[in-house]
């Protein structure tokens, strides 16, 4: 069996086009564009690339982009001050503080300081709790993007066996909650799971979010399963360059899976599309408008 390759780039382009339409309509009715503020602390080149591509995608969707760059010597107090300013700025609907932060800054304090109504990452405990209890929330972009691809691929996932590998607050936990919300039977596996290969062999749906290059092997994959690879690992190549690989052995797994996301071009582009989606949703809610339809 050769798996269908799930085209995350194409799905993301569709979402972004719909978001652009919604943003234009929002601007017509309110007289201002939805706005996203990104905050980058320090000089990590990979982070700088992500933040730049988010800014570009934001402008392309007809939204205002406010980009803040702070030196890596920034204190927690200084960063909290900027967050406070962005919380009060009516033109800012979404605030994204790029993680990881330098060691002198406690990320959980910064996240807790973001206005939950502007928390387009969905990382604030208020949004995490709302997602966990089934209330309206802003949902973390990566798992939301994964769910979008799964529903596009499978339609209903009710009753399916889903195995999420990884239990982070950013991907694994919210992914499990979203899958429960769709009535899947959900197992969360992690570094202490016994006999991980056998656990994964049960899965109709595998979501791999561990951050270990090609850890999930092809003989763990149940024939016909849908595989969502969240990993983005840069590994060195023989010509002393590097390439991106996921958490799944893509070549092997794509001979057994029914459908699989590639890296790059799978989940990554969906993360950015969902960030834009969350920003227009936050803008509508803040403006007292009902949620936009179709995203
Ligand atoms: N507060 C916060 N929110 C985030 O959402 C967040 C963050 N911090 N810190 C860093 C991670 C990483 N992240 C990615 C988003 C898109 C791609 C993406 O589009 N990747 C492309 C290409 C990658 C490449 O070529 O380098 C792909 O997978 O096809 C990757 C990684 C968001 N993050």
From TrEMBL:
Protein family according to the UniProt entry: Belongs to the tetrahydrofolate dehydrogenase/cyclohydrolase family.
State which pathway it belongs to: One-carbon metabolism; tetrahydrofolate interconversion
**Record domain Tetrahydrofolate dehydrogenase/cyclohydrolase NAD(P)-binding: where:** 140-286
- Tell me the HAMAP family matching this sequence: THF_DHG_CYH
Subunit comment? Homodimer.
InterPro entries (alphabetical): Aminoacid_DH-like_N_sf (IPR046346), NAD(P)-bd_dom_sf (IPR036291), THF_DH/CycHdrlase (IPR000672), THF_DH/CycHdrlase_cat_dom (IPR020630), THF_DH/CycHdrlase_CS (IPR020867), THF_DH/CycHdrlase_NAD-bd_dom (IPR020631)
Q: Which residues form the Tetrahydrofolate dehydrogenase/cyclohydrolase catalytic domain?
A: 6-121
| Alphabetical keyword list | Amino-acid biosynthesis, Histidine biosynthesis, Hydrolase, Methionine biosynthesis, Multifunctional enzyme, NADP, One-carbon metabolism, Oxidoreductase, Purine biosynthesis
Identify the EC number(s). 1.5.1.5, 3.5.4.9
- Whether Ubl conjugation counts among this entry's keywords is no
The UniProt entry, under PANTHER family, shows:
C-1-TETRAHYDROFOLATE SYNTHASE, CYTOPLASMIC, C-1-TETRAHYDROFOLATE SYNTHASE, CYTOPLASMIC-RELATED
Summarizing the function annotation, the protein's role is: Catalyzes the oxidation of 5,10-methylenetetrahydrofolate to 5,10-methenyltetrahydrofolate and then the hydrolysis of 5,10-methenyltetrahydrofolate to 10-formyltetrahydrofolate.
Which Pfam families does this chain map to?
THF_DHG_CYH (PF00763), THF_DHG_CYH_C (PF02882)
**Residues at which NADP(+) binds:** 166-168, 232
Its UniProt entry gives the catalysed reaction(s) as: (6R)-5,10-methenyltetrahydrofolate + H2O = (6R)-10-formyltetrahydrofolate + H(+); (6R)-5,10-methylene-5,6,7,8-tetrahydrofolate + NADP(+) = (6R)-5,10-methenyltetrahydrofolate + NADPH
Q: Which gene encodes it?
A: folD
Protein name per Swiss-Prot or TrEMBL: Bifunctional protein FolD
